[in-house]
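Chapter review: from sequence to fold.
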Amino acid sequence: MEPSLELPQQALISCPVGVLTKQSFRHQAALFWFAHSQVYGEAASLRSKVLWVENNLESEPREKDLTWLHQLGAPYLIGKPYYEIFDCPSHGVNVPLNIQAAVAQIIDQFHPDQMIEILDCDMFHLRKAPDYLVADDEILVDAIYEDWHLHSLGQNRDVIAKYFKHGGGFYNGGFVPIIGRAKTIKKILDAWIEIHIDIVQRDFPDKIKWWAGMFALQAACENTQVTMKGINATYIPGKNELEISHHIAHYSVDKIFDKKKQGWPFLKTTNFPGNSYYDCIRSWLESLKQVAQSPTVMEDKWKHWIAKSLLMEHTDESIVANLATKGYSENLVEGEIKKAKSDPYFRGAQDVFVRETAKLQETKIEQLKAEKNNAWLLKTYDKLSRMDESFGEIERIPVPPFKDFVSNYLSKNRPVILQGAMEDWPAYKKWSLKYFREVHGDSTVSIQDGRNSDPNYERNQKFFRKEVLFSDFIERLQQTESSNDFYMTAGNMAQHRESLPEIFADSDSVNIGDGYLAGQTEGSLWIGPRGTVTPLHFDMINNLFCQIRGSKRVRLVPSWSLPWVYNDYHVYSDVDAATPDFEQHPLFENATVYDFVVSAGEILFIPIGWWHHLESLDFSVSITRKNLALLASNSFGAGFIKDSTNFSVGKLD
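The token string follows.
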């Protein structure tokens, strides 16, 4: 932490707030500092202090390597997170309290009359701030947030009215930049914190709770009789036009330089409009290219991925953006794309791909007729199924005799939840993170890690395999409140049988019911935190899904809904069953989605071909059993077309 530096009190010190554990905040702070240095030159260090908090949630590991922070060059302070200094728990809805937490830990370092400017981290200076004249009992805020978010003077006034002590005449609905003297910020700080915490504990929609800090600022100023004065200081792309009075930009909702896009901030700049805001971002991105410390040689697995993406006609831009998240520079990726396109082996594969695609086109009319007939038959079957009054509801029953199970459920391709089978299972009795650590803490296991970097993480799971100590995986689970970034999944079961013999011995001894299982044990093991998601897909086998610990939300779609689930590759669907986009996937509205929760101790029978999407609601351990005692094989994958869709997407008559 650098010492406080002398500066004329009327000069503004800018204080953006960031979180050390979030990569996006690092990029935001780098852009802030680049722009700040461009605007203030040698005085930039005197006129800024980046306020960092250690993390957002208690479950997030703290950043240990701060080399990047020293390399950034911006003056900074690192403070404790909100849940360590305020009387409130670590929770997602409380995360915005880190703004007040950061300010509370630096405010006494400033001279009471020093002018400071509190910012979100996704803001940067376009030009020098004016020498604002701000009285002792007033702050300046940009008033655009009242009409954009809060409506605190109108329809949402009841959110803060209960806190008013002076009739509500001191606030205006504004927010960042928050500009005022240090002593004035300190005067409102306690009320700002207390009211924020109270708002998130009240019965408000999540959106109101997420903006609780903005609402609380209004009430805090009213309580302490600090007048909020509105200024037109902020350019917000997509919300207002850039004006000469705007000395700062807030890019939180910019749809061009979009923080939500994969590969951000390393986006193509060719479509950037020509103004000072985008010119600054463009210059910053160019500077990153010049100093990038990215790998100079690409791993073969990503060269393979580039070739596959090119054959599938993905754009060069999307390939560059995806590999930027892996640390590869734009120049390196573009060079590899160029080499791939000119490589005679790739060109040969491309010729074969084009020829085979042309062959498929030649038979398109015949295929389309067959597909439409198949779709008609399946839709008719769906209509017949809907005549059952219980259609769309999952049945829960005690485990029946195996013969009855086959007659009533398996042979009819009908899902069911079986109850009461697990009470005597060693796995159900013993399994816990403590037990796992005791019996196999020193073993090496394979997990998926880094899933958040790729929306198709399940299809591309081989790229996310990582070997870790089982004890390290367990510790990470204990420290994680919710995540889909890492997960022990069905892959590498042979390896896990060798490395986790006690656990697999427990699972091999399961007894679902007399006569249910036969032969060698076939099945898989899943272990993960709350928040893990397995996207919509189907299995080519009848499956008994056993939930040992925690619970999972399951979305099941009948097997005969195949024409409407956009089966674009192998066993996968292109539809997000949790939040389907009916504009992109209109046919999915024809499908019935069974939506229910499987709890610990329950066994879900997933018939072959039934599409399923699973989301862990707690720390979860699950196993499957596939070695059913059937007269015929339980594997039905032969003949399925892996690399193309089974049905053309089109309107059904």
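Two observations follow directly from the output. Confidence is low (pLDDT under 50) at residues 1-5, 643-653. The longest strand covers residues 13-19.
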